[in-house]
Write a structure and sequence with these properties.
Elements lengths: L1 E6 L2 H26 L7 H28 L11 E6 L4 E6 L6 H6 L3
Length: 112
């Protein structure tokens, strides 16, 4: 396994973190409405669901933009064996490759 840690821009980190909170909040509200037996065929529920869908789309776009900015395209894709994690408290983007499709030297060459 190969790992690279990059400190990302704090503005990017803050934006993605905020979007994540919006998604989580909307998801919790919808779950509460369903769990409490509220009628989910109302306009109010539809509005909350639409708000959740918009927040989730914005969050996914922001994560894709993060990938495009910091992670080489050759390391991304279904079978590339690469995962990443963003630690909001430190702005550390940890990129990890399982080493099954490239060597450590190849992995490191993407970041030099």
């Amino acid at each position: 396994m190969f790992t690279k840690v990059i400190i990302i821009d704090s503005e990017v980190r803050d934006y993605i973190e905020r979007l994540g909170h919006e998604v989580d909040g909307a998801k919790e509200l919808i779950a509460y409405m369903i769990d409490s037996g509220r009628d989910i065929k109302t306009d109010t529920f539809k509005e909350y669901h639409d708000e959740y869908a918009k927040a989730l789309a914005a969050y996914n776009i922001a994560k894709e933009e993060l990938e495009n900015k910091y992670i080489p395209k050759a390391l991304l894709g279904r079978n590339a064996g690469t995962e990443w994690e963003l630690k909001f408290e430190t702005a550390e983007l940890t990129i990890t490759n399982n080493g099954k499709t490239i060597t450590e030297e190849e992995f490191n060459s993407f970041f030099n």
